[in-house]
Structure formats: C-alpha cells, structure tokens
Amino acid sequence: MRQFQQMSRGSEARDFNMLQDNFHYVQQWSIVQCIIVLICGIVQVYFVRHLFDEKKGKQAGGGSSMKMRT
C-alpha cells in the first residue's frame, strides 16, 4: 500500500509540473499573438488614414488639379 501511495504522489507531482508547463506555454504564445494583433491593427489604421489624406500640394493650389476647359 505504501508503494502504491509513493507511486501516486510521484505521478501527481509529475502531472502538476506538466500542467504548469503547459499553462506557461499557452500563456506565452497567447501574449505574443495579442501583441501581433495589436501591431496589425495599428498598421492598418495608419495605412487607411494615409489612404484618405489629401496631399498638401493640392490644398495650396486652390483645389483640384483638374480644371475644366472652356
């Protein structure tokens, strides 16, 4: 019975250590993925804003560079 209890305690400790290692592994990669998602979002916002920005040269010229011919 004592031998069985020792084996049980050993496997419990091994399982607990494996559980902790898996938790740290998943947590580490989840944080990395969250950072990647935030970086992608920031880059997308940056490019969309610059897509709709008007050039400063057009505003100084008094409007659009295309003029009607009469």
Topology:
Elements lengths: L1 H51 L3 H5 L10
Structure description:
By secondary structure, the protein is mainly alpha-helical. It has a domain at 1-40. It has 2 helices and no strands. The longest helix has 51 residues, at 2-52.
Beta-strand percent range: under 5%
Average residue-wise pLDDT: 84
Estimated structural class: mainly alpha
What global shape is seen? rod-shaped
What's the Cα radius of gyration?
31 Å
- Tally of strands: 0
Question: Helical stretch count?
Answer: 2
Query: Helical percent range?
Result: over 70%
Q: Roughly how many Å apart are the termini?
A: 106 Å
Biggest sheet descriptor: none
Q: Which H/E pattern describes the elements?
A: HH
Low-confidence sequence ranges:
none
Notable characteristics:
70 residues, mainly alpha, 80% helix, 0% strand, rod-shaped
